[in-house]
Every structure is written in C-alpha cells, then in structure tokens.
Amino acid sequence: MATIKINKDNFQEEITNSQIPVIIDFWASWCGPCQMMGPVFEELSNDYEGKLKFAKISTEDDPELANQFQIQGIPCLIITKDGKEIDRITGFAPKDILKQKIDEIMKVLK
Question: Which CATH number is 83's domain given?
Fold first, then answer.
C-alpha cells in the first residue's frame, strides 16, 4: 500500500472520513530526519494494509494543517481515528522501533 499525499483539499475525505485509523507523517523537504523517515514510513505501510492508512502532509505546502495539529518538531507521526488525534511519535526511529510503537498504539484502538 502506498502512502497518500494529503492537502487541505482531500483532508476531510482521507483523514476525517476514513473508515480505518490513519497515521500522518508531517515532514518537510529540507529536514534530514524526515528524508530518513520517508522510506521507513513507506515500507511500514505494506505491513498494515487494511488496518492503518498511511498519509503524508508537507509542512511547507500545507502549514495550516501543521498548525491545526500543533506540529512543533518534524518528523512527527500522528495517529488519528475519526479525524481525532489518538497519539503521536516525534522524531526519526528505525523501522523495528517504529513498528513496535505503532503496534502498541494499535492495541489501544481495538
């Protein structure tokens, strides 16, 4: 499953109205840790197909969405359900650690 690029035009449809929880990667092109997170995030999207939607929001292109979620550091991953924040993970983490954190959050959502 590929990640979905989110902007203010498709936010309502893809995030708020999503039938499954969504993990949003807030990132920027100039951010080194964000560039490292990108491939890890993309790879993990395959592990959660049908259970968790993976989305990306550029803080450069859509600063109003970053402000809405009060993003203060990137990369910042926010897990939402019904458009509401459930949890967040800030900073880069390798795949195995990130997967463990996501699994812990997913247990709470069940």
Answer: 3.40.30.10
Please identify every residue annotated as catalytic: 31, 34
Tokens representing 54 are 């993976």
What's the gap between Cα 1 and its chain centre? Answer: 14
Res. 1: pLDDT tops 70 = no
3-state secondary structure of 14: helix
Q: What's the confidence (pLDDT) of residue 20?
A: 95
Tokens describing residue 73: 């550091």
Domain that holds residue 40: 4-109
The two beta strands, 22-27 and 53-58, are: parallel
Query: How many domains, the chain?
Result: 1
Tokens at 60, concatenated: 């450069």
Give 45-99 pLDDT, tens digit per residue. Answer: 999 999 999 999 999 999 999 999 999 999 999 999 988 999 999 999 999 999 9
Are the C-beta atoms of 102 and 48 separated by less than 8 Å? yes
Contact 54, 40 (CB under 8 A): no
Whose structure tokens read 């969504």? Answer: 22
